[in-house]
Amino acid sequence: MSMWLDLNRIRAGVEHVVRRLAPAEFAGDDQFRVVAPVDLDVEVTKDARKVRLTGRVKTTIATDCSRCLEPFEILVDAPIDSIFLPAAENVAGDDEQVASEDLGVSYYREDVIDLGEVVREQCYLALPMKPLCRADCLGLCPVCGINRNRESCTCQVEWVDPRLDALRQLKGHFQ
Fold it and tell me: Rounded CA gap, 83 and 92, in Å?
C-alpha cells in the first residue's frame, strides 16, 4: 500500500479509502516512533478544487517519559477532518493576514496527497505536552541518576535557595 493518495483516480463526489500503513514507513521521527500498523479509514470528498478527508486514524506510538526517560506506548485513535487545496492557491504575500477559515487548510501538489503527513500530524496531536509513563512516575534521582520507579536510593536531596543565605545567617545570630 502506498502513502500517497492519487486524486486523479478519485472521481468528483465521495469515495471511501482504507489503508494499512507499515510502521517502517514512519521511521526517522525524533519525538515518537510508530510501533504498530497504521489503520487509516477516510472518506474523500472531492469537488473541482477542494478535497476533504474525514475519518479516523488508529495506531500505537512510543515515546519517552519526561521524568524517567523510559519508553512507553500511547494508543492513537484520532478523528481526521482536513481540507486540501492545490498548492497554486497558496500564494499569500508577506503582509497578508491568514484568514480564520484558512487555518485548517493544507495544500497538495501534482494531484497527490501525502497520507503519511496526515498520519504524522495526528500522532503529534496525540502526544501529551509532558509525556508520562504513568501519573505517579517518580522519575530519576537528581543525585545518582537511578530510576526511582525500579530502585530506591539513600541520596539526600535538599535544595537550599542561595538567595536566603543572608537571612539564615541573621537568624543564627539571634538564637
Answer: 18
Q: Are 137 and 149 in contact (CB under 8 A)?
A: yes
Can you tell me the distance from the alpha carbon of 155 to that of 174, in angstroms, rounded to the nearest whole number? 32
20 residue type, one letter: R
Beta strands in 47-89 (DSSP E): 51-64, 71-86
Give the global pTM: 0.76
CA 67 to chain centre: 18
- At residue 169, φ and ψ (nearest 5 deg) are -65, -40
Is 84:52 a contact under the CB 8 Å cutoff?
yes
Contact between 157 and 143 under an 8 Å Cβ cutoff? The reply is: yes
Would the pLDDT of 93 be above 60?
no
